[in-house]
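Need tokens for this chain, all 513 residues.
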Amino acid sequence: MIIHKSYKIKSCDDVELGLPRSSEKNPKLEFKLCWDDSRPVELLLVIIQGLGDDIFNPYLKLVMESLAKKHRAAILSPNYHNIGNRNQCGAKIDLDAFDMNLIEFFCKSNNISLPPDFRTSEYRRNAIFILQDFIKKQKQSGLCDSDFQLAVSATFFSARGEYQNFGVMPALDVLNALLWVQKNPPFKVEGGVESHEAEIPAVPPRVSSSSGAAASSSTASCAVSKPSPQNPRMSNSRTANPSAKSLPVIAAGESYGGYLASMCAKIAPWAVDGVINNSGGAKFIERMIGFGKEINYKMYPCTHHSFDHILLSLFDKTYWTTNPHSPYFFSNARRKIRYILEPRHLEIQAAYPKPIYVGYHSAKDYELPLKECVELYKIYQKLGFDATLHAVRYKKQIDGKFIKTLDHGLGIPFKALINKHLPEILEKLRRRHASPQNPRMSNSSPAENSPALAAARVSSRVSQARPAAKNSAANPPLLIPRSQNKSIAYPCDELLYTFSEKNHKMRLEISRI
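Here are the structure tokens for all 513 residues:
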């Protein structure tokens, strides 16, 4: 039987801006989990919704059910920070101080009367319709061109009272939901035991103020659990189903969701084994952060809505600003940490377990250029990642079933995307962890080739080879040996961003270099 569960947990604060996580309607991170309880779970699949969608979409429920059945997966989907920032997700369009100043200036210049409580009344949004009526009369009187549209701005106020952080907090939310499920799995896992003996010690990169990051020359020993008399295969287990953290983890999404899947792999490469990314950018569109109105409200909106006589430029609520004197200044350092295509960061990530990447992108995606994605995947491959980019450039590549358009997203059905590439990613992971010549990290460090680690891998392969009740011995459930190094640091100009996992929760520390 298919099981659906909803959870609310504590997640992260905004470390960059020094703001506590607060929300009028939902102060906690909410996520949904779906699995088939008639058989053990063999996979954790994280579905990350893009802009204009959330976990309450009825179609998402159907997709989760189908994928859970087909792939023996537990499907996780979170309402990450500021996901409800579009109308269809419950966001409200209102006016902030900038928007009201703009309207007041136009009205004063044209002798248009506004209510005295314009700034404080909940009906201030009616000013848009006052202006609409004014322009209509001006056209009827021949005082302005018939095709004239007055450009004004307004703001999306998120359904949960949140704001646009962009990239960092949402990715931390996704990972925190994943880590919570790994710690508290409500589903059965094949074998029901943890592969402590298979944990891989990794050498953390050392970061200095002058050279960024460099690999440490020290070695690490392998922690091998001693079996207890009561359970020769498991020790020090505190959960009823402790092997959930050894299940393969695949993160998948489209557009902003695909970008966030790649961000999760960037800031926690030890936790994500594969990424399926449809049309997520290698960088991002800066106007989507919300401060485009500070530059030119007519040219850089997050999106817009056209009325008969009004062109409404819409912006996300955000604290980020282009003002270099503000503590909320969106500096180059804050920009760099959000880039997937940041060569120095990719070199640092390459010292960790390498996720498998599969991407799709259209040459007609003018706002998220294909050339950036091509450059990203070339760097991935150069650094030893298994990374495949499907670049769609020509109409002849449209088959009408899988690829349906050259527009952003390519019209690819999400379920079909997962069904196409999930099995091949799992097979690659199976080969990677089954071969003694091909350890988890392709460019292994000396510590990885230690005798203790070799023994751990042999023990892990023996554990994985035991046939389960519902699996053939030839195709045992895949368990992933996890790196013990769960911290990664990225230098970004004058700032050092350090992401770490402690007590099954992600943390971010920012220091000056």
